[in-house]
Amino acid sequence: KEHGKINARPGKIILYDEPNCKGNKTEIWGNVVDTSSWDLPPAVSISVVRGGWIMYEKPQFQGKKCALEEGNFELANLWKEEEDNPDKELKPVKFGSVRRVVRDYGVPKIDLFPEEKAEGKSVTFQDASDDTRMYGKPIKTQSIIISSGLWLIYSKPFFEGVPSILLPGGYPNLEAWETKEPYVGSLLPITMGAPVVEEPQEPMIEIFEKAYFTGKSCTFCSDARTFITRKDAKTLSLRTAGSIKVLGGCWVGYEKEGFHGHQYLLEEGMYQDWTEWGGYNDGLKSLHLIRADFTDPRMILFDDTDCGESVEVTETVPDIELTGYGTTTKSIHVLSGVWVAYENVDYSGAQYILEKGFYRNCEDWGASDYKISSVQPVLLVREEKLHSQAKIKLYTESKFSGSSVSYEDNQGAIPESFKSLSCRILGGSWVLYEGEEYTGNSYVLQGGEYSTLTAMGCPPNTSIRSVKKVPLVFSEPLISLYNLECFEGKEIELTTEMQSILANGFNNHTLSVHVKGGMWVVYEHSNYRGQQWLLETIEISNWPKYSGVQHVGSLCPIRQQKRIYFKLKNGELNQYLSVMGDIGELKTGRVVLSDKAEGIQNIWYYEAGFIKNKKHIYIFPVPKLPIMGVPTPPQKKVLSVLSKVSFLYWSLISSALCFSFRENWKLDYKGGNAFDRDNVVIYNINEERPTQLWTVEIL
């Protein structure tokens, strides 16, 4: 099919001096002609973030070769030296040079010839083949021409044996690719994976006026409608963009000012001139920072028919027509994640970067027509770990400059010499205190960037002396304000934020507060100003005594910025809440206890009052954990992943670490001797049943 402009990608390798991608690291962005002086231990690890690479035994790309595709690998005894080492003592890892070979989404192509010097009728491959045998024998091959790609050539089927590693070029005879076997039994090209981002919450991009990172430069941490010099400009700006360093985050570069014209996805990496970001020309005049949750990508494309034919995608699709959907797309609904749509197949041609939201026509996503032939999501490098981690980064200067410190746990005493003027919340939510050991005035910050003290909600000259993580709470927000003590008198019940109690027609006079669900930040004045109080599930019968004021000006619930995955472990049986049944058996799917600690069958997350399982999130409407039928004590009700009952809401009682239904029901274990004894049920609260206690293991 027709291919468009090839879209280049930056390359990156991270070399660690310990196994399991730990320890000190060295970043490699491009070719390194001599690494022989690098001092490495006997066992190191490597993470290939982008591209296909070759590691050579000697400098100047000479000697034995080792192909590296995207992923994480352990490197020990790289060149099989134990064969000459009778003591089998591991020696320090040594290699001489590294070359980046796969740089873009160009389609690999290899031609196999039965005679030397490319004579005879050739057989062409553009993709992997685990078994090339024809008439029971591998393909006889005396010479090879590789038009594009990095190929691994095996003499036997199913990738058995040591492969020959071949770059683009001609190989007129067997000696040219250092083999004695005139057969190719299987072959495999190393290709580029989907776009990825490593540090989405620490964005920084540096634009240089000239190629190869020379000339005047400007650094940006957020959107820039233009960075090009105007005739009347008095501030520092550039005449053009000659080269780019993307130090963090995922960005979109635009050909024209104001986010118009051709779009270029700018991943973390080095772009030494405009050809390396896939430009149509040297024009690049505005920048957009993508601020999004990159997990669980999901998008729906709608065609131009009256009946609304559509296709839902959750992963890379090199040719949309192969799904049974055409190439004409009239509207797009991005449900989650960040996507790149391409005009042509195999991720070629014009590209359009799509964030969460609804695009009504092609002009909305920046195109001049409705042709979309391939799509792929932008992924987090470490997304597969499903790891949730709180993190705050404080800076000594405004706009995230100066020196910085990062904390991933509570810090009771920040050094007096460190004065924070800006901060980034990179995970979770945090409370900042003016005094040590979490005392004094407090300021609650949810995920995001706060470029000044004012943006942090702090008065000028505020000094932050301690920081504390906001605990995770799995329950729907619900708070009641009363105008009398002990929860009497007029009640104001809220489930969402309120910027001003008075502006919404209520009297802000408050003498008692009952937080029934969620985590809330209560402010002294409207518009989230004045003193702040962070409240978990709590009953405050005397609000003036608790807070020192007799009113509430505004308030808002704290919501998780990202999906939090966890496992539920029964405290009595030490087994995990799990889904039983394959995709084809979902009609009989059950929620059970399982000994298995691994696998997505027992990975859950909390959303809108429901516990949802990760296993079937893309295939069916997201499974929920309600009961079948209406509960009538003291019967036990079996749980099902497909029940459509929607009025059941769950919450985590932090003191008991158990889930309850409207505070009257709890998850329990059916037991007995019947076939369904492993079923998880809900049952009325019984403090004498230890099977009603559950431990939440955050991933």
Model description:
Mean pLDDT is 84; it is low at 583-588 and 616-648. The chain has seven domains: 12-102, Gamma-B Crystallin, domain 1 (Sandwich), CATH 2.60.20.10; 109-190, Gamma-B Crystallin, domain 1; 196-289, Gamma-B Crystallin, domain 1, CATH 2.60.20.10; 298-380, Gamma-B Crystallin, domain 1, CATH 2.60.20; 391-469, Gamma-B Crystallin, domain 1; 478-557, Crystallins (Gamma-B Crystallin, domain 1); 565-698, Trefoil (Acidic Fibroblast Growth Factor, subunit A), CATH 2.80.10.50. The longest helix has 5 residues, at 543-547. It is globular and about 95 Å long. Strand 39 and strand 40 (488-494) form a beta hairpin. The protein has one helix and 56 strands. It starts with 11 loop residues before the first strand and ends with a strand. A five-stranded antiparallel beta sheet has the order 51-55-54-53-52, with no helix packed on it. Strands 2-1-3-6 form a four-stranded antiparallel beta sheet, with no helix packed on it. It has a four-stranded antiparallel beta sheet with strand order 9-8-11-14, with no helix packed on it. By secondary structure, it is an all-beta fold.
**Averaging pLDDT over every residue, what do you get?**
84
Main beta-sheet annotation: 5 strands, antiparallel
Strand content: 35-45%
| Number of E strands | 56
Helical content band? under 10%
Q: What is the first-to-last residue Cα distance?
A: 44 Å
* Shape assignment: globular
Q: CATH topology of the largest domain, anyone?
A: Trefoil (Acidic Fibroblast Growth Factor, subunit A)
Reading off the top of the CATH hierarchy, the class of the largest domain is best stated as: Mainly Beta
Low-confidence stretches: 583-588, 616-648
The helix/strand class is mainly beta
Classify the oligomer: single chain
- Using the CA coordinates, give the radius of gyration: 30 Å
Strand order of the largest sheet: 51-55-54-53-52
What would you say the CATH architecture of the largest domain is?
Trefoil
